Predict the structure.
Amino acid sequence: MSRGGRIISIEGVDAVGKSTQSLRLQTWFKRKGVKVTALSFPDYETPIGREIKAFLAGKRAFQAEVRHMLFAANRWEKLAEIKESQIENEVVIVNRYTESNLVYGVANGLRLEWLAALEQGIPKSDLVMVLDAPSKALTSRRPGPKDSYEKDHELQFRVQSLYRELAPKFDWIIVDGSRSVRGVHDSIVEVVKSSLDARLRARL
Ligand code: TMP
């Protein structure tokens, strides 16, 4: 028996185009008649999400362990919703998921195993695509105020290297995110077609 919806995570450094690509992929699946939904982390609307928003805005001075426990707890808060989305849909696209906490946590000096333990029990991604583009200029690409992680250029640089370093270990697929929105979308679709199980693939 299938356990329901496949989880596809879209990952990468800040401002690399994850939201745009998640939305396009969602539309693409819908056009194919596949039942799809999208989730996004952090979810800033929950009680823990509001704490995350506060420390990213510099209003709280939590140490790294607390910050990354809160990111994980934000997923635990939404566990029922994640599971329900999986039951109701064939595909669940997640804009940042457990992988973000591994990469950003390690970039902030925390141990990978410690971070991974915080996510044990959260449904695992079936496919992880990391949008990769030179981190220089990326955060300036997005208008508006920047949070404390976005402002930290060294952190962004470490995060980008870590995505590349950890990708082979966890079977994450790196997608060149430096091209046009259309070009990146086409690559994502190719990866999706070749990675999803045969039952779903037959319909794409
Ligand atoms: P956002 O800009 O995508 O809303 O995410 C805010 C920051 O939170 C971003 O710099 C990445 C970081 N983050 C983690 O460190 N761990 C996590 O689990 C998630 C979801 C985000």
Notes: The chain has eleven helices and five strands. The chain has a mean pLDDT of 93. Residues 14, 41-42, 56, 71, 96, 100-101, 104, 149 surround thymidine-5'-phosphate (CB under 6 Å). The longest strand covers residues 6-12.
